[in-house]
Amino acid sequence: MYQRIVVKFGTSLLTGGTRHFQLARMVELVRQCAELRQMGKEIIICSSGAIAAGRERLGFPELPNTIIHKQMLAAVGQSRLMRMWENLFEIYETHVGQMLLTRADVEIRSRFLNARDALHTMLEYRIIPIFNENDAVATAEIKVGDNDNLSALVALLAEADLLILLTDQAGLYTADPRSNPDATLIPRVETIDESVYRLAGKSVSGLGTGGMVTKIQAADVARRGGTEVVIAAGKEPNVITRLVKGEALGTHFAALETPLDNRKRWIFGGTTPSGGIIVDQGAARALRHKNSSLLPSGITKIEGDFGRGDTVSIRDQDGSELARGMTRYNSEDLQRIKGCQSDEIAERLGYAYGAVVIHRNDLILV
């Protein structure tokens, strides 16, 4: 059923909620991945744990909670984490390769394409890519922030069929099962809206940076690219192989019927908007219901300082985000042409890059 699968392992899963990595649990995860690879499946891993591995390697030192100390721990721990994966996969005569990313690697289109090509080449040679955020060099400005959302970006890069987010819970519940005995598992989610986010609780392990909220965010990104997503318990026996075979475990998030093409995958998943464009009601309706491009006549306000070709957020008069897209005009130009007709652009600017501000092919509805 599924051919290309991304599996995300969180720190709490790999450590069993303790300060130490649980090798017995890790080898069981490896066994399942190796088994699927022998069946001809393409497996991609997104693994947390570099900072935890650094702490373990250095004997759990008492350190200030600063970015630079976390970078030091990640620098020590990432090689150790990768060595553990490599040694475990060697049991099954399986090659692995390390890929470290920051948000900059997916925000800049040339780097996005380079990462995609490297990933596809590894799969071609039957090597299992193991992704993690490059915490040793990442600052707050260029961090993805958590490996749930990183795994969604990897799913976009890979054009994966399935993203499996393994956690310490069986999936998404109607309430927090740790405090509410009447909470029931939600087996399938067709639409992600505010009501779904309200169901999400917070991580209690204290080991990772994610929680159920970030898993829902990741599911929302990945499903727009045509990837189905499952949140499931990592301790469930043979959970990976059973999910790939189609068994109903955890909470399943349906992929959108019309997935994004590769260019729009990058616009939505890889880029942080550089600024904002506020549009009137007529333009909002045209974007929502008529598959229209954005014209200058519908623009009422420009926010931020951005260049031509940057990704911007398009919002309605209430401030709700409608879409994201790559603008053909910079913010200074748009201040001069907002509200005008398309045939007036050249007169106002002395030049024109076309009649539309954002073409529908460079735009994705949110």
TrEMBL record:
Residues covered by the PUA domain: 275-358
Keywords: Amino-acid biosynthesis, ATP-binding, Cytoplasm, Kinase, Nucleotide-binding, Proline biosynthesis, Transferase
Pfam families: AA_kinase, PUA
Gene Ontology cellular component list: cytosol
Main location as per UniProt: cytoplasm
SUPFAM superfamilies for this protein: Carbamate kinase-like, PUA domain-like
UniProt-listed Enzyme Commission number(s): 2.7.2.11
InterPro entries for the chain: AceGlu_kinase-like_sf (IPR036393), Asp/Glu/Uridylate_kinase (IPR001048), G5K_ProB (IPR041739), Glu/AcGlu_kinase (IPR001057), Glu_5kinase (IPR011529), Glu_5kinase/COase_Synthase (IPR005715), Glutamate_5-kinase_CS (IPR019797), PUA (IPR002478)
Residues where substrate binds: 48, 135, 147
Location in the cell: Cytoplasm
SMART domains, A to Z: PUA (SM00359)
Molecular function per GO: ATP binding; glutamate 5-kinase activity; RNA binding
Catalyzed reactions per annotation: L-glutamate + ATP = L-glutamyl 5-phosphate + ADP
Binding positions for ATP per the UniProt entry: 8, 167-168, 209-215
Function text: Catalyzes the transfer of a phosphate group to glutamate to form L-glutamate 5-phosphate.
PANTHER family, A to Z: GLUTAMATE 5-KINASE, ISOPENTENYL PHOSPHATE KINASE
Protein family: Belongs to the glutamate 5-kinase family.
Protein name per its UniProtKB record: Glutamate 5-kinase
UniProt source species: Candidatus Moduliflexus flocculans
